[in-house]
Amino acid sequence: MRFSPTKSYLLSLPRTLPRLIRLVRRCLTLDIGARRLGVIESHGQAVRAVGILVDDADEAHRVSVENGAVSVLEPHVLNDDAKGGKMVMAEVNVVLRYVGKHGYKGPMLPNYEEVESLPLTYGLVRLDHAVGNVHKLAEAVNYISKFSGFHEFAEFTADDVGTTESGLNSMVLASNNEMILLPINEPTFGTKRKSQIQTYLEHNEGPGLQHLALICDDIFSTLREMRTRTHIGGFDFMPKPPPTYYKNLASRVGSILSDEQIKECDELGILVDKDDQGVLLQIFTKPLGDRPTIFIEIIQRVGCMEKEESTGREVQKGGCGGFGKGNFSELFKSIEEYEKTLDGTLKA
């Protein structure tokens, strides 16, 4: 590892869903310099930068540039005299934003103020992973891993995760502690329908971030609260799999999930997968804007607890339960069906 990233983040998730939606959409469309750089005009609703909390943003930026990254934003200091401490930010193209807190303990960014909110939580904790779509997977992976020191965490091919109509190839990059996870997808060709990754690349007008995965502690509670508020500005979720998916679920994860939990998965449209270490529960929203591009994933990981050496507390290993390899085909089918409902702008 050439520098020491500690974790990924999504700027202090607020407690209430309307505020979460506003914050996510501000992060997607009003990021620093986004309008000036023409991001919205080119890509529509989109993520411009993914933040990585590091011990030293200056050093992370310097080492990345020395190893091939192109600097987008030189290290600069954000001071907050009222709260004390400072934050240092720097960016390299992809775009990754390195953030060093240097004693800053306030909300969000320096000079932000706390605001009162309802005593209500949806259980959303942090950003688990951020997924990018590119034209050529090998080139992107080699480039990012060279300047960041990230290593390969998992790999999927069209044979693993495609359908009879479309597919993708994917590789997951991870930091040394595997708490920063960056899956990257490329389209495959020669199938009946255009790959959803190719559709994204065309409508996004180039590579970009496909979705943000937000992790929670109790996905059942989180989704029930979110679904009750869809009508006041919440997210619309992708259609759930056919009944056969849930009939077969007990044989796959019955030793880990109870009959009642499997029933809740069916009711809420939650997808379930597992690897040799843990279980992944996940659900996807429909695209957030007027293009079939950026969307949100809500997940919960079960298992893979280990003791942290520095503090002695129990923590969950990054990527526990995998990335839904067994659910890719169901997700693809949902996206394929969703694309067919659009107003004629997408063709097979």
UniProtKB/TrEMBL annotation:
Entry's cofactor comment: Binds 1 Fe cation per subunit.
Domain VOC: 126-286
Alphabetized SUPFAM superfamilies for the sequence: Glyoxalase/Bleomycin resistance protein/Dihydroxybiphenyl dioxygenase
Family matches, as InterPro entries: 4OHPhenylPyrv_dOase, 4OHPhenylPyrv_dOase_C, Glyas_Bleomycin-R_OHBP_Dase, VOC_core
Taxonomic superkingdom: Eukaryota
Cofactor list: Fe cation
Pathway in which the depicted protein is active: Amino-acid degradation; L-phenylalanine degradation; acetoacetate and fumarate from L-phenylalanine: step 3/6
GO molecular function annotations of the record: 4-hydroxyphenylpyruvate dioxygenase activity; metal ion binding
Transmembrane segments: none
Entry keyword set: Iron, Metal-binding, Phenylalanine catabolism, Repeat, Tyrosine catabolism
Family: Belongs to the 4HPPD family.
Gene Ontology BP annotations: L-phenylalanine catabolic process; L-tyrosine catabolic process
CDD domains with a match to the protein in the record: HPPD_C_like (cd07250)
Signal peptide bounds: none
Annotated PROSITE patterns: VOC
Residues bound to Fe cation: 129, 211, 297
Protein's recorded name: 4-hydroxyphenylpyruvate dioxygenase
KW Iron (keyword) present: yes
